[in-house]
Amino acid sequence: MAKTKSPAKESKPKIAIKAALKNQPDLSTQLQDQFGFDGFKGPQEEIIESLLNGNDTFVIMPTGGGKSLCYQLPAMISEGVAIIVSPLIALMKNQVDLVRSYSSKDDVAHFLNSTLNKGQQKIVKDDLTTGKTKMLYVAPETMTKEENISFFKELKISFFAVDEAHCISEWGHDFRPEYRRLREMMDLIDEKIPVIALTATATPKVQSDIVKNLGLRKPKIFISSFNRPNLYYEIQPKINLDQTNKSIVRFIQQHKGKSGIIYTLNRKTTEELAKMLMANGIKAVAYHAGLDSKLRSDRQDQFLNEDVDVIVATIAFGMGIDKPDIRFVIHYNIPKSIENYYQETGRGGRDGMEGKCILYYSHKDVAKLEHLMRDKPLSEREVGAQLINETVAYAESSVCRRKILLHYFGENYDDKKSCGHCDNCLQPKEKIEAKDDAAIVLKIIKALGEQFPVEYTLLILAGKATPQVKMYRHEELDVFASGNDKENHFWNSLIRQMLLAGLIEKDIVEYGLLKITKAGTAFLKKPTSFKIVLNNLFEEANADDEESEQAATEAAAADEKLMLLLKDLRKKVAKEKNLPPFVIFLENSLEDMATMFPTTMTELEKISGVSKGKAMRYGKPFLDVIIKYVEENDVVRPDDFVMKSVVNRNNNKIFIIQNIDKKIPLETVAKTRDLRIDELLEEMETIVASGTKLNLDYAIDEMVDEYEQDEIMDYFKSCETSSLQVAQEELADSNFNWEQLKLMRIKFLCEYGN
User: How far apart are the first and last CA of the chain?
Assistant: First the structure.
């Protein structure tokens, strides 16, 4: 149910739009005529009535609730043009396209921002002057330009709409200082014009900031429930990148053909993830602020038109995508605030159908967010730290996720029956009685005069006499060290759940000081049963997006016993075929086999350096050995699913082939791809072992004399080892270096291995 309230504040705007609508049909008929909808959702009709009656109106409605219609319908049926302020250029285009799709005329809606050239701006202004346009979307910066203010003064304006109104509050998740000037600009244009402010996410503190900073006059306030019952929430630990990427690919392949968004912390990760998804047959594109506006627009259209299934976007850059059938939202990194998380997950399942929200949690990601705050002003750092702490508390909690989210936005949720749609409710932890412990916490908060935050309270509980504690002489309190029989983890879990239960509250304005509520005071007088669940520690969740491929995969070490069996088999097969062992399979291919335990020809083909042809020619005896080893040793295979990687080898394959075809010097090829020469040669050998021939004669002729080439080729024909170190020792008289031998072995593989 939407809550409506009207705080007393200043005089209301003088223009009642409804006066001009006397002879028009009722709103339901207008809704059907203009947009083709049979009825209003929730409080939409009441909100529209409020605006048409000339009231300043404030709407807090979750994503998917139908906020846009609350100003689009009044704009269409009112005299004049509605000016809609939006922070996202991408969202403006999307909204304008959507409005135009309901009308027979394109001039019904326009946007005016920095992406338009002078000619395009003239067309927009001409349509506004002639009264053809009913909705004009503008960026806040557009409103501040003097020439635009003068132009807007001459127009008949029906009302102002401020979308994403949380941007006006420094406590909002997307603070935009230019939003603070909107009231001033609106007054310069015409102070009598009514204003509607809209947002999907606003804590009580942000709500009061919006009313105050936008100067809303006796506004009618409509707050819809923040609950999105169709969304499923889950947190997974990000232990290492290889495991995480594999999990994501498997998840998306299980939801084949469905649309989804993956949010990341930086641009580099968006590009890498998109490439990795594409390598695994998933249609994906990256989307971030570093791309030029045309490419961003094209990629947005590709996603909306379902030419791509997955869009990988930065957290820092607002997507502004209005697509109702997004079936999953994955957070590759923890967002910087619960508001961000709520709004981004809110893009899933806007049609009321399935929407899965998965967040991968790593302590390293939290540290990075904190590091990004280091250069901000002190007040901004303190606000940012609180927002991050709230998000961490949400991620680590074992309580119903829905209850935590709704509590954050000031809404109570009865989770006694379980929401049944989050990981914590589907896999509940055992509850433990904490009645006496809750009383201890309340006594400490009271003894501290309700003047300290959670972190300080934990110091008193544990009995840690830090310099700060000694400065206040709090080590002399009777309650000092009254909780030292239990670990910090217990007390942290308890305090978070006391906040949820309303026994205590955080004073947000005072940077998180703990206060005892009326319910807390009553509990202290007469304690009752208070059961809690301990938080998730996620101790192993330490994956770092910057870690190397080696670090990401080192947890999956090759089975040494199987490796020896495979080497012996390779030697045997090589003798039968009268070929050197490395021609059968490279050393790194055997290592992959001893790590992933492929048991089918399809799985073998996914091993590094194994082409379909090579698998068919040599693979069967190797699979037989692996299958037997797995059965006899009860091996638990690391994963039946083998993900295609897009590390350097795959990223560079086409580039290397094309450049060698053009006879580009190897040093130049390596330098262009930021590779060492030995790394380039390793990649070339894997390419050749996979069945692609490379003509390296131009490079070899520069490094090795013709008669020396014959000597090395003869050696490789009869050698029984893959070791180039052994080759150097056995050919010591000729003093060949590693690069010369590696190049010649690649040539040998081209001639005899394919």
Answer: 70
Residue 457 to residue 469: CA distance in whole angstroms: 10
Pairing label, strands 231-237, 259-264:
unpaired
Determine contact, residues 70/51, Cβ cutoff 8 Å: yes
| 414: Cα within 13 Å, side-chain hemisphere | 2
* Neighbour count for residue 323 (Cβ, 10 Å): 19
Residues 554-595: tens digit of each pLDDT = 444 567 889 889 989 998 998 888 888 888 888 888 888 888
Which residue type, as a one-letter code, is found at position 312? V
Q: For residue 356, what are the β-bridge partners?
A: 232, 328
Q: What is the percentage of the chain residues whose pLDDT exceeds 90?
A: 45
Helix (H, G, I), strand (E, B) or coil at 57: strand
Going 698 to 704 to 705 to 708, the CA torsion angle's sign is: negative
Alpha carbon distance 161, 214 (integer Å): 11
Amino acid at residue number 124: V
Amino acid at 553: T
pLDDT digits (tens, 9 = 90+) for 295-333: 888 888 899 889 999 999 986 455 556 788 999 999 999
**Look-up: residue for tokens 């791309």?**
291
State the residue for tokens 């040793």: 633
- Smallest Cα–Cα separation from 750: which of 702, 704, 716, 711? 716
Phi, psi of 363 (to 5 degrees): -60, -30
SS3 161: strand
Across 320-348, average pLDDT: 89
